[in-house]
Amino acid sequence: MPFGAHETMEVHEILNEKIHLINLFGRMAHETENHQLRQMIERHLQTAVEAYDQMVAYTHDYGAANRMPQVYGMPRMSPEQVQYGLHNPAPMLPQPQQAFRDQQIASALLLAHKNSAKNHMAASLECADPNLRQMMVNGAITCSNQAYEVFLLMNENGLYQVPTMNDHTAKTFLHAYQPTNSQPMMHI
């Protein structure tokens, strides 16, 4: 079964991205000093390797779709576990000549996952092959979950602060949207 032109190019882009993520994650795991961050990076690295190998296997043998890995799951979280508000955020500026610190490694990991989630979802929209499409969707969900895991670690350690707005302002803004009250929609 041949692949379409769009999906062939999208798979090429995702596989190329995976190679660079695998290389980057390996370097990050080696350079970080934080044990918890290192363990997280190593888990994410293993997931990236499995996803890469699975997609490569499928492009070589359509029967490999039967061996799809599961989506990377997240433990249940409640909104109360997230720390909201700004608490003396540190100034941010480029520092291209310095060695990476754990905060920079965590930020790079977070951005890599966010971008990979977007890239996987965009690629899924171009796939005609249902198995390939599902691999892309699973990749987007996995990267999204891994990004959230990195966010939670950063947030817990004060490295990712969540700006807030006045509670009254937020509620006024969002409460402008009202339920449909299950009114049937009129067809024009």
TrEMBL record:
The organism of origin for this protein: Xylanibacillus composti
Keyword vocabulary terms for this entry: Capsid protein, Sporulation, Virion
A Pfam family annotated for this UniProt entry: Coat_F
Gene3D superfamilies: 1.20.1260.10
Subcellular compartments: Spore coat
GO biological process terms on file: sporulation resulting in formation of a cellular spore
Predominant place of localization: other
The family this protein is said to belong to: Belongs to the CotF family.
Name of the protein: Coat protein F
